[in-house]
Amino acid sequence: MKPIMKLWIAKHMKDLMKTKTIDKIRVVDICKAAEIERSTFYYHFQDKYELVAWIFYYDAWKIDILDFKSCVVAMEKIRKEYLFYKRAFEDNSQNPFWKYLVEYFAKRYEEEAKKKLNTDTLDIQLIYSIRLYCHGAVGMTREWILYDNKTDASTIIEMMFQSMPRNMIFLLSSSSDIM
């Protein structure tokens, strides 16, 4: 079942972000645009930052983070929705978008590592490597969106996969990726 109200609110947030930065958008503006009560907004989202992160999460769960082609498609979507992502990455407020992304991807990579290693716990060095990689990949994605209008998505993903720490390479071993 699709989260219809969340999608409705997200659509209006994206529309507002075409003309305003996140710091200039208030929850009341989102509610007015979506023609909903504030209580409806707060039933679904803690704040506008969580809403922006949810917009990303809604599509991101479909990405196979270990598959080159899937990651390229995701990066192409980010480029296609350039203004939304540019505004999201520009925001440096209390809950910046990049922090949500780091936590999201760290959790996804940790889950993949636990599956591949058939364990419930990961060693501290692997967790560190995963978090370091996620900080770097999100940071470089931010730079790509904000400052690089030339490099294609497949080149960015190739560089990310090639930069994966050695102790994480086993994650890619069964996929048909560039490694």
Key attributes of the depicted protein:
179 residues; mainly alpha; 9 helices
Number of H- or I-type helical stretches = 9
The helix/strand class is mainly alpha
Q: Please state the CA-atom Rg, rounded to the nearest Å.
A: 17 Å
- Tell me the helix content: 55-70%
Helix and strand run: HHHHHHHHH
Tell me what portion of residues adopts beta-strand conformation.
under 5%
Q: Categorize the overall geometry.
A: globular
Tell me about the largest β-sheet: none
Number of strands: 0
Low-confidence stretches: none
Distance between the termini: 37 Å
What is the overall pLDDT average? 92
Would you kindly provide a written description of the structure presented here, covering whatever features stand out?
By secondary structure, this protein is an all-alpha fold. Helices cover 66% and strands 0% of the residues. It is built from 9 helices and no strands. Helix 7 (97-117) packs across helix 8 (124-147). The longest helix has 24 residues, at 124-147. The protein is globular and about 50 Å long. The N and C termini lie far apart (37 Å).
Please provide a brief summary of the model.
The chain has helices at residues 4-17, 27-34, 38-44, 48-60, 68-80, 82-90, 97-117, 124-147, 153-162. It is an all-alpha fold. The longest helix is centred in the last third of the chain and has 24 residues, at 124-147.
